[in-house]
Amino acid sequence: MSWTRKHLITLEELSLTEIDQIHATAVAFKRTLSRSVKKVPALRGKTIVNLFLEPSTRTRMAFDMAAKRLSADVISLDGASSSTTKGETLRDTAQNIQALQADMIVLRHAAAGSALYISRILDIPVINAGDGAHEHPTQGLLDTFTMKERLGSLHGRKVVILGDILFSRVARSNIHALVKMGAAVTLVGPSTLVPLWFTDLGVKVSYDLRSALADAEVVMLLRIQHERQLSGHFPSLGEYTGMFGLNKTRASWLNPKAIIMHPGPINRGVEIDSELADGDRSVILEQVTNGIAVRMAVLYLCAGGQPELVMPTE
Ligand code: CP
């Protein structure tokens, strides 16, 4: 089947076939990244604008790296240095970027729905690099890619997502992808941050950390999203860490083969202790590295490429 999608806005709207196509294309691109010449000419002559109106380290740099590995020209614009600080709207900013002849926009924005909004206004492809607490599709794709590399098929695999689920776009994107891939997902955390209505998405909700961890083949930690919480959802960070932080004792409840994931940024000593974040079971930096190949696949496909082609080196 061919790839027909111009934008990547959510994983909710992607089919399992489309997720597999992105992963298969990322496998091909990952191979090119271990060559002595890492660049491929796939997007030569194209200009990609990374419009990051909310802070980012990993996503922004991985999109920069991915576009450069595809031989595209890349321009990055962040909120503090853009005319949004003078009152320019997202609509005007996006239309001006298109008028400047960009071929694609990668958008990170604090508002849920922002990427969908500009995709309906513009003629060029729009890639969602995180819209508020809604979705972070490329993070969900790189996380599931990393799980597949480690575990093979995710069908029937037990994945625990632990932390601030309510305000997490990473959790939502992972849930949509993992459920389509047949994984058994359990969400764990304080009831104020893991409401029961998440079960409508096809996952389990548990407030019993020990039994959830005992079953898990993957545990994904999420940080507390202070920037999105309008009121306290638990008494203090210390109390959260005391009840739900992953420490050595709680990690001993895990199957020894279970892997530990985190999308970053990590708050060491809050949701995860340093010795676990840096330990043998952690795949946190593998996730970051895989973010390049997965984003190369997304940029390439949304620019009109087709899945699973092996790229010649430049
Ligand atoms: N995982 C993630 O989105 O990290 P950044 O906010 O640093 O991009």
Secondary structure elements and pairings:
Layout: H1 16-32, E1 47-52, H2 58-69, E2 73-78, H3 90-99, E3 104-109, H4 114-121, E4 126-131, H5 137-151, E5 158-162, H6 169-180, E6 184-188, E7 204-206, H7 209-215, E8 218-221, H8 237-244, H9 248-251, E9 259-261, H10 274-277, H11 284-302
Parallel strand pairs: 1-2, 1-3, 3-4, 5-6, 5-8, 6-7, 8-9
Helix pairs in contact: 1-11, 2-11, 3-4, 5-6, 5-11
Bound molecules: phosphoric acid mono(formamide)ester.
At the first level of CATH, the class of the largest domain is Alpha Beta
Q: Percentage of helical residues?
A: 25-40%
Mean pLDDT across every amino acid position: 94
Domain count: 2
CATH homologous superfamily descriptor of the largest domain? Aspartate/ornithine carbamoyltransferase
Radius of gyration, whole Å: 19 Å
Helical stretch tally: 11
Textual characterization of the structure:
- This protein is about 35% helix and about 15% strand.
- The chain is an alpha/beta fold and about 325 residues long.
- It folds into two domains: about 140 residues, 3-Layer(aba) Sandwich (Rossmann fold); about 150 residues, Rossmann fold.
- The chain has a five-stranded parallel sheet, with helices on both faces. Strands 2-1-3-4 form a four-stranded parallel sheet, sandwiched between helices.
- The protein is globular, with a radius of gyration of 19 Å.
- Bound molecules: phosphoric acid mono(formamide)ester.
- The site of phosphoric acid mono(formamide)ester has 11 residues, from helix 2.
